[in-house]
């Protein structure tokens, strides 16, 4: 005989959504990919033609941006998929994995640029001023346009990958300014070493940006406590709720940049005549109102029934 209590799991029944539609972010990222890819090719061939390592290094930075944006598009697509029986948290974490890979890629590229710069210190190459200067100016305009597009998108939708891309293009903008300065100094002094110095500075900017992105996403992937929350403060605040004696098995982490989860077990001062549902409700309201935490899992335990070794 079939068990009448057996039901199909309804993954639509969640207190918070584990997915998000990001139409604006998708349009923004596609526009950014096309513009970035076009200018990365211009910079690469311009750098090869002019002999400017600064342009070549910045082109590789731009290519890394293209790869990062492609990963971001994939993340946006999967983030819109709803939870299922295999992925009960949905696919929002793909956004974090994508950003983490992007950060590592930037760090590796920056090291490669420094190695090439060191080689050129011993084997300088002629640099064509006009080509270097013209492409750098065009690059500055492209990056300013991309930053404007990304900032406009972030006002409508908060997206970690779009935010990361904004930091990338801020770095690119500074790099373009650096290349322009290097080109002018090169023209005035004819010292190729300034092109090498600027390429090293660009690589340091790339490395710092990549490290920050990788660090932030690594902590999320490791389910560390979010930086903006104090675990001791939250722990002590929960203990101020009436009838709660102690809490343990305490965990606080990010599923994605915006979705914070918390879970813990509660021990009470007394158990007779206590309404467990009211206590849980008090805990949930406290965490939501004071800390913005909506995904709360609470378990009330009685030491006489639930053994604690």
Number of domains: 2
CATH topology (fold) name of the largest domain: Alpha-lytic protease prodomain-like
- The CATH homologous superfamily of the largest domain is called Cation efflux protein transmembrane domain
Helical stretch tally: 8
| Oligomerization status of the protein chains | single chain
Q: Which consecutive residue ranges, at least 5 long each, have pLDDT under 50?
A: none
Q: How many individual β-strands?
A: 3
Proportion of residues in helical segments: 55-70%
Spatial shape: elongated
The CATH architecture name of the largest domain reads Up-down Bundle
* Widest sheet, order of strands: 1-2-3
Report on this model:
This is Cation diffusion facilitator family transporter. Residues 29-222 form the Cation efflux protein transmembrane domain. It is a single chain. The protein is mainly alpha-helical and 309 residues long. The protein folds into 2 domains: 26-222, Alpha-lytic protease prodomain-like; 231-301, Cation efflux protein, cytoplasmic domain (Alpha-Beta Plaits, 2-Layer Sandwich), CATH 3.30.70. The protein is 64% helix and 9% strand. The chain contains 8 helices and 3 strands; from the N terminus they run αααααααββαβ. It has a 3-stranded mixed sheet with strand order 1-2-3, covered by helices on one side. β2, α8 and β3 (295-301) form a beta-alpha-beta unit. α2 runs antiparallel to α5 (160-189), α2 (53-79) packs parallel to α6 and α3 (93-122) packs antiparallel against α6. The longest helix has 30 residues, at 93-122.
């Amino acid at each position: 005989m079939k068990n009448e209590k057996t039901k199909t799991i309804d993954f639509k029944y969640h207190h918070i959504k584990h997915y998000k539609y990001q139409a604006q972010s998708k349009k923004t990222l596609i526009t950014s990919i096309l513009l970035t890819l076009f200018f990365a090719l211009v910079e690469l061939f311009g750098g090869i033609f002019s002999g400017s390592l600064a342009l070549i290094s910045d082109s590789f930075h731009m290519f890394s941006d293209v790869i990062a944006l492609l990963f971001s598009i994939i993340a946006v697509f999967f983030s819109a998929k709803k939870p299922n029986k295999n992925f009960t948290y949905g696919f929002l974490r793909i956004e974090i994995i994508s950003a983490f890979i992007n950060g590592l890629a930037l760090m590796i590229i920056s090291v490669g640029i420094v190695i090439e710069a060191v080689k050129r210190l011993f084997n300088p190459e002629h640099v064509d001023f006009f080509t270097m200067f013209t492409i750098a100016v065009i690059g500055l305009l492209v990056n300013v346009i991309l930053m404007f597009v990304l900032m406009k998108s972030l006002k409508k939708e908060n997206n970690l990958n779009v935010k990361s891309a904004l930091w990338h293009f801020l770095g690119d903008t500074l790099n373009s300014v650096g290349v322009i300065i290097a080109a002018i100094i090169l023209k005035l002094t004819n010292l190729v070493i300034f092109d090498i110095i600027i390429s090293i500075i660009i690589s340091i900017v790339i490395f710092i940006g990549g490290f920050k992105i990788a660090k932030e996403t690594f902590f999320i992937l490791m389910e560390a406590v979010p930086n903006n929350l104090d675990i001791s403060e939250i722990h002590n605040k929960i203990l101020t709720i009436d009838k709660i004696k102690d809490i343990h098995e305490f965990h606080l982490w990010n599923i994605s940049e915006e979705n914070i989860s918390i879970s813990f077990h509660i021990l009470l001062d007394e158990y007779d005549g206590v309404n467990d549902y009211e206590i849980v409700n008090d805990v949930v309201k406290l965490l939501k109102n004071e800390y913005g935490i909506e995904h709360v899992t609470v378990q009330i335990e009685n030491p006489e029934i639930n053994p604690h070794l």
